[in-house]
Amino acid sequence: MAFRVRGLDPAPFQRYFGLSDAALAAQGVVRYEVDTQPGFPDRVTMQDMAPGETALLMNYEHLPVASPYRSRHAIFVKEGADAPYDAVDTVPDVMHCRMLALRGFDARGFILDADLAEGDGIAPLIHRLFENPDIAYIHAHYARRGCYSGLIERA
Fold this sequence. Notes:
This protein is mainly β. It is built from three helices and nine strands, in the order βαββββαββαββ.
């Protein structure tokens, strides 16, 4: 079964681009100059930002559902990101190089299954989770810090 990985829509984040550090701080957002790679995974382009680029760290509600699993966490967004990642049957490098927690949710926003995978084990786990017809989508999280990585849907 084919799967699709999508980065976040940049539109909700564009209001932060170019603001002063003080204006960002007033909204709970912190600007970082990227100094290591990997280390700052952008959730729009689904790439690790390069040293010298600017990352915005903010809280993001990635699971806005009316269930006990409703959730938000810290994410990085590349300042100026304008085109979301969108690919079928491809695990982006930003996911491939990290241990992921993959959580399969039903249409009500309840977790039906979850497991850990890294590297070449990620795609097979996605396929295994989607063998359950009740899993509507998968959320990927970076296992070490727990941050939301991205949405995986049936293609």
